[in-house]
Write a structure and sequence with these properties.
This protein is of the alpha/beta class and 165 residues long. 44% of the residues lie in helices and 15% in strands. The relative contact order is 0.13.
Length: 165
């Protein structure tokens, strides 16, 4: 089993690892979209093109000119999530983010992920085995930095649950 190496990415990588990273509470929602987009490597003109789509998905149209510090945590998560998924990178890395927002927004996110199937590479990092089985074609179980099981999501889920029995 390899214990070192490298990964080469041909295309754009959109990491969504921690909610709110790259946000400034003193800036408006609108300004934060541009700030976060810049951190993801997008130009202002690229953000201009996806701005309306980001805001519409987040369902925050009437709040975009308010400072982020006045947003609820749920509103901030919606905005961060909408930026990450609308950035349309070649590879999307999501770390424990599928349970964002209220039930209606979660369903919207689930529908979005279903639409990605076969069209985009998504790396989902999660402890939610239901989502692994629902969204993944292949899974890898890592414990203490070592691969314990890989392959079929149902088999990996079973191995994960065995760790806690």
């Amino acid at each position: 089993m390899p214990n070192k190496g490298s990964v080469r990415v041909s295309g754009s990588l959109v990491p969504f690892i921690e909610l709110g990273v790259g946000f400034n509470p003193e800036l408006t929602g609108r300004e934060n979209i541009y700030l976060n987009g810049a951190l993801l490597g997008f130009s202002n003109s690229e953000i201009d093109k996806m701005y309306d789509e980001i805001v519409k998905f987040a369902e925050l149209e009437e709040f975009m000119d308010q400072k982020l510090k006045n947003y609820s945590s749920g509103m901030q998560v919606r905005l961060a999530f909408s930026i990450a998924v609308r950035a349309k990178g070649d590879i999307l890395v999501l770390d424990e983010v599928l349970a964002v927002g209220d039930a209606a927004f979660q369903e919207k996110c689930n529908e979005y992920f279903k639409s990605l199937h076969g069209n985009q590479t998504v790396i989902l990092v999660t402890h939610d085995m239901e989502n692994v089985e629902k969204f993944c074609d292949r899974a890898i179980l890592i414990e203490n930095g070592r691969i314990v099981e890989e392959g079929n999501p149902a088999r990996v889920t079973k191995a994960y649950k065995a760790l806690w029995d």
